From TrEMBL:
Residue ranges of every copy of the AB hydrolase-1 domain listed in the record: 8-219
Species name: Sphingomonas brevis
The keyword Isomerase belongs to this UniProt entry's keyword annotation: no
Protein's UniProt keywords contain Nucleotide-binding: no
GO molecular function, one term: hydrolase activity
Assigned keywords, A-Z: Hydrolase
Name the record gives this protein: Alpha/beta hydrolase
Length: 233
């Protein structure tokens, strides 16, 4: 299937918004894809799935649905839309039925870095701004990491706890980009989720912000997912 006949829908994760996809968007649009960037409020999984489905509905072509971090939970649920033909997980959670970010992070492996999450009294999470660079964006320059830290989007506890009903990866092909230097989602956990989902695994050296720091590697993983659409059409 040619690039002119596919739409790419990009779903961001927690603590950030869709602007981090800018370099990926530029590369994909330059290749002829229709590219849609979702702006999820990250208040609850149900809300985010609804917003993502509305974005899918606007796509002109069959969709490759892409999620980073918590966005992987969103695409696992929203990806059941019949318009979605394949999935791409970018250093993302890929939950099974009944799982959420909350359950997936409940038992970290010994020695795994602990994300510097700061809860608020009213049910929202943020990352400690002074530790954001090292934990979330270690391979980005200081100014970019500081801007991301200072422009954080509060992440609702309800989104963290939102459980997937039936993961789209059980019925649709997927790729998974493992960020080998990730300090938010341990790379072994990424490998486990990717293998469980039957995803084609691509690895690249990068932080949790690999979609920002390594746009070429990210586009490669997305185009691998796009190539899978040909196999199922």
């Amino acid at each position: 299937m040619s690039t002119q006949n596919l739409s790419i829908v990009l779903v961001h994760g927690g603590f950030v918004d869709g602007s981090g996809w800018q370099a990926v968007h530029k590369r994909l649009a330059g290749k002829g894809y229709e590219v849609i960037v979702v702006q999820n409020p990250t208040l609850s999984l149900d809300d985010d799935v609804g917003v993502t489905r509305r974005a899918i509905a606007t796509a002109k072509h069959p969709v490759v649905l892409v999620g980073h971090s918590y966005g992987g939970v969103v695409i696992s649920e929203a990806g059941n839309d019949p318009k979605v033909k394949s999935l791409a997980y970018i250093a993302a959670f890929a939950p099974d039925a009944g799982e959420s970010v909350e359950t997936l992070i409940a038992n970290p492996p010994p020695g795994a870095p602990v994300p510097p999450i700061v809860p608020s009294a009213d049910g929202f999470l943020s990352l400690d701004r002074d530790q954001f660079h090292a934990s979330f964006a270690a391979d980005l320059d200081e100014d970019t990491a500081r801007f991301m830290a200072d422009s954080q989007v509060p992440w609702g506890v309800a989104a963290l706890a939102g459980k997937v009903s039936f993961p789209a990866w059980k019925s649709k092909p997927a790729t998974y980009l493992v960020a080998t230097e990730d300090k938010m989602i341990p790379p072994p956990a990424q490998q486990m989720m990717a293998a469980r989902a039957g995803a084609k695994i691509v690895e690249a050296k990068g932080s949790h912000s690999i979609y920002v720091s390594q746009p070429d590697a990210t586009v490669l993983a997305i185009e691998e997912a796009a190539s899978l659409v040909e196999l199922v059409d």
